[in-house]
Amino acid sequence: MIDERHKSALIEILGEKGVVTDQAGMAAYEIGARYDRGRAAAVLRPGTTAEVSACVAYCVREHIALVPQSGNTGLVSGSTPDASGSQVVVSLDRMTRLFDLDIDDRSLRVDAGTRLSDINGRLEQSGLFFPIDLGADPRIGGMLATNTGGSRFLRYGDVRMNTLGVKVVLADEPGTVVDLMSGLRKNNTGVDWKQLFVGTSGAFGIVTECVLNLERLPRQVSTAYLVPRAGAAVMPLLRMMEQRLGSYLSAFEGMSGNAVAAALAHVPSLRNPFQNGDIPAYVILTEISRSWAPREGEQPLDAVLETVLAEIWEDDGAPLANAFVGPAHEMWALRHALSEGVKHAGRLLAFDLSFRRADVLAFCEWMKAELPHKCAGVDSFDFGHIGDGGVHFNLVVRNADQVDDAFEKWLRDWVYSVAVDRFGGSFSAEHGVGRKNQAYYDRYTPQESKNLAAGLKRLTSPGSLGSVCFG
Q1: Model confidence over 123-136: pLDDT tens digits?
Q2: Average pLDDT over the chain, rounded to an integer
């Protein structure tokens, strides 16, 4: 797949273990997390920033297209090669050596190939964590490239808000290394260049190292399932929770009854927590937390949550139909099983959308009313981060044979047009931009923004880098 001259040159730069060209060895780098598969010309596995720089510089000079890849857990074909067989994957999976914890600064310098689970596993004994809660286990470079959010965005924000510094290799002929690793929390001396490389899918450069903000690990947690009286009651309920709980509130996750049923069916070890096994049409998982150990005389968090729910229950026009506090590990186990459950419910067409908070349920209910008229045999299995306006709007087609390229394109076009044009939302809340939604970036992004992005691309990485064209 790659010329022997190029292969020899890259082996000289990276060594034998740093270059993969056999089909069996490349297979894991060619397959995405959801329905996508490409063909790589080769896979490069540098171990240091200097090696990334050297191999990128060589490929740019030789006009070889590059696709950066971190944990390969993305869902929009952003980190896998296309079907041409001409693109070289640059994998960060060997870049895991740097792990420099600064407890006083509450920050961590880490290589971009380090997995989220490894970061938090090693930080646990220090009472700290990187507060991006995800169902997958990505590598940190990919998390920066896609600006992931997660289930506790409401409390801690997204990756962008928790990135203090980056080191980046540009796709230019020298393979320029840009060191933005100062890690200062306050630095108002000009453009905050690190943000150029967060959420832009690797198009402007390959993040090789970063400085992360850390938070105190929660020492007390209380969770509850809330059943709203109707979709229109969700926002009043959230406002009441925020008013009464303030910064204690760390999650407010919506789950449709279809999604919950799919998770319970797929994972037999999960316990159905609902009375008589009757799953409500919509459920909210809420969490409150404290970062300190319980103190003598302090009201336990379960009691705090129960008191707040009782106050809401007694309010005129109470938005709650039912609520119960339960074990955090069981409640979150159900929430984290939703993705896999929905994936096994049928042929899945997944949408990662965001709206103004008040429009999330309005969109979902509008779509559910329209689906039977637009496309029979398609059901919605939505769940998401109501507290920050995000929703994973999943459509499951009961008859998989119904899904061909034309049907999928028609359905995606319709959903995105409703989300963006009718409700003013975004077609990508936290999955980034990949080949799967390039057409929607082209359609919905203002030309002025495209022009700016094209100029930044020429300035930073004029070589062929990434799977997205922002210009």
Answers
A1: 999 999 999 998 78
A2: 95
Residue 465 domain-assigned (yes or no): no
| CATH number, domain with residue 137 | 3.30.465.10
Cβ 466 vs Cβ 68: under 8 Å: yes
Specify whether the backbone of 266 is left (phi greater than 0), alpha (psi in -120 to 50) or beta: alpha
Query: Do 297 and 376 fall into the same domain?
Result: no
Residue 334: pLDDT band with limits 50, 70, 90: very high
Q: Does residue 421 lie in a domain region? A: yes
Q: Which of 143, 142, 145, 118 is nearest to 132 (CA)?
A: 143
As a whole number, mean pLDDT of residues 265-282 equals 94
Q: What's the pLDDT tens digit per position in 177-233?
A: 999 999 999 999 999 999 999 999 999 999 999 999 999 999 999 999 999 999 999
Contact 354, 382 (CB under 8 A): no
Give the other-Cβ count within 10 Å of 53's Cβ.
20
User: Tens of pLDDT along 419-444?
Assistant: 999 999 999 998 889 999 999 999 99
Indicate which CATH number applies to the domain containing 320. 3.30.70.2190
- Would 471 be classed as within a structural domain? no
Per the structure, the count of domains in the chain is 4
Sheet holding 66-69, edge to edge: 19-20, 40-44, 87-91, 66-69
Distance CA 99, CA 109 (A): 6
* Torsion 320-323-328-329 (CA) sign: negative
Q: How far apart are CA 285 and CA 274, in angstroms?
A: 13
Matching residue, tokens 């007390």: 220
- Residues 334 and 371 reside in one and the same domain: no
Whether 69 and 89 have beta carbons less than 8 Å apart is answered as yes
Stated pTM of the model: 0.94
Residue 459 CA to residue 204 CA, distance in Å, equals 9
* 458 within some domain: no
Q: Where do the DSSP E strands lie in 229-377?
A: 249-256, 282-290, 320-326, 347-354
- 178 bridge partner residues: 168
The two three-digit tokens of residue 206, written as one number: 């390959």
